[in-house]
């Protein structure tokens, strides 16, 4: 019998429509109850301004953002499919790139794996640019490293110094 690989994963969450807190809590519960997934830490939620391709949009509903740390036996593609199912179960409709949403779940890191294909890029290509990912990730794992980019604490310090 083959023992399944257990991988550490980082999932960023965001929600800016509906009852954001209830949606996020329900999504974390969905992750925790999924076969092959163990939630090991959940950051505090932080409220952030909506981000659009052209920059921040203070006229849009604000987001609740945070990070969930997992241990999983699911391969990365299966974990991504699970995240998309949970988003859909909570009313996520993909109509506008970077548009408002009831729930967004991004696979930020999967056991340090580096991958670049149309379905999944690892680590998440914009994680190092997003304080709303780095700050909660640092909160739950002060020693975290974003593969290929460096320590999350250092990335966060550099990002905050430029804003």
Automatic annotation (TrEMBL):
It holds the Pfam family HPPK. Keywords: ATP-binding, Folate biosynthesis, Kinase, Nucleotide-binding, Transferase. Pathway: Cofactor biosynthesis; tetrahydrofolate biosynthesis; 2-amino-4-hydroxy-6-hydroxymethyl-7,8-dihydropteridine diphosphate from 7,8-dihydroneopterin triphosphate: step 4/4. InterPro entries: Hppk, Hppk_sf. Residues 10-142 form the 7,8-dihydro-6-hydroxymethylpterin-pyrophosphokinase domain. SUPFAM superfamilies: 6-hydroxymethyl-7,8-dihydropterin pyrophosphokinase, HPPK (SSF55083). It catalyses: 6-hydroxymethyl-7,8-dihydropterin + ATP = (7,8-dihydropterin-6-yl)methyl diphosphate + AMP + H(+). This is 2-amino-4-hydroxy-6-hydroxymethyldihydropteridine diphosphokinase. It comes from Pseudolysinimonas kribbensis.
